[in-house]
Amino acid sequence: MAPIILNCDLGEDESLEQTEQLLALIDAANIGCGFHAGSPEKTGASIELALKHKLRIGAHPGLPHAGGRGHILPTAKEFQHLLEQQFSSFQATAHALGTRAEYIKLHGSLYHAVETQPDLSAVYIHFLRQQVQPVAIFALAGGEFAQAAEAAGLSVVHEAFADRDYLPDGSLVPRVEQGAVLSQSEALERLASWQKNGKIPTRGGVPISLAADTLCVHGDSPDALELIRNIRTFLETHKIECSRSRFS
Asked: Where are the chain's structural domains?
């Protein structure tokens, strides 16, 4: 397995103490923009802590309601406004602290919507291409959006999930379904299988081949800190390097 970036969704409703504990274990921080969870103050504090740990910093915009998840998706125009509002807010905070977002990773429903909604995918790609400074994208490994973004000349970091169950088509089991979020033992067992043969076990189907540049653990997953520690130990034991260098 090639060097991998260990990332985490955070800067949301976890305590600042947990935020820093998570940051000490990862390579890239997907920090909430203060709309679906957290606050502008929490975003700023999380960026400061990420700088302290010399991490890659990414903006993590989401639907502007509690949890950032739901079946009601924005129109293309609403999505454009959401991206402009949340990313500009994040960048303003980051610039005030002497840094910027190197990448964007959509949160929750939006992350999955660009896989299946061509109008939203097109808006997202257009938005990213309009940025004065290049911004990379964290996108679902093997997904439709990653292919479309690469075809548009954008820098894509292919992402796999350590703590989520997969379906045979390479998408994630919806969070509303029981067992969608894996236990620590299940996550580590699956990581070992992936490291051994490059395949991810799926629910109700045969394992699928999956190549990824980065591995995500959600900061709000049960025992997230312990899981990330054990993943880091696993990667080190198997001499799988983690990467903290900047994106190309």
From this structure: 5-237
The structure's pTM equals: 0.93
Range 65-68, long-range pairs (CB < 8 A, 24+ positions): 65/36, 66/36, 66/37, 67/36, 67/37, 67/108, 68/35, 68/36, 68/37, 68/107, 68/108, 68/109, 68/110
Q: How far is it, in rounded angstroms, from Cα 187 to Cα 165? A: 9
Q: Which of 95-99, 120-124, 214-218 has the lowest mean pLDDT?
A: 214-218
Q: Which CATH architecture has domain 5-237?
A: Alpha-Beta Barrel (3.20)
